[in-house]
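[audit] Reproducing an earlier prediction to check determinism. Same input, same settings, fresh worker. If the tokens differ from the archived copy the diff job will pick it up downstream; this log only records the rerun itself.
[audit] input (253 residues):
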Amino acid sequence: MGARFTDRVVLITGAGGVLGRAAALSFAREGATVVAAGPNRDSVEETLRLVEAEGGKGSAVAVDVTRSDSVRAMVDHTVALHGGLHVAFNNAGVLDGRAPVGEHDEDVWNRVLAVNLTGVFLSLKHETAHMAAHGGGVIVNTASNLGAHWRRPGMSAYATSKAGVSFLSRTAALEYIGQGVRINTVSPGPIDTPMSLLPGESREQRAARMARDVPLGRVADPQEIANAVLWLASDESSYVVGHDHVIDGGVTA
């Protein structure tokens, strides 16, 4: 167990997913109290169980990041139960709908933007309000190498939402650094999660595709992304503001 986040309360959205869970465990190992948030209560409670099994502490809360009242309640839960909010990792996201723009389902488009972009906006809205009024804090948002850094046919909704996260984060970073809230972004490439599998693709087929398409030759281990998140959230990166940290094995080099 490390100590970089001792006495700090860390809120993670998308904490029931692979990356969110890896980050939750990593923060807990560094001494944080972890609030695992996500739409599926069973998944976030499992993340909390894993945190506690390693000697960590925290709580789990269900949240719909597309609804302002739900996000506000998530922040209120964190502060009321744990006494503050020092770090937020806004990681909730979905990847739906692979189709050309002219064939894109409108409901899918709206859902992707609602979760990936509006969800980060609402999280920032309520997190910065608390942090700015209580001495500051650190926020890390999850974007993607797809979007501001790279585009692929058929991925318009996802790329648009994640480009928006990058630009939103950098704007918010300028707006809130004077109030002690430091905001940055991670933009991962393909990670070893179900999201990186094409429809009907096996892990073996994905590995062959990554060997061809990624200069490093493989998908990222979730821990490799979590390590970057913890660095951006720690005092070690105290002079880093408004940075979009691309972690994609050289795809966008």
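[audit] rerun output stored. Observation attached for the diff report: Residues 110 and 157 are 8 Å apart (CA to CA).
[audit] end
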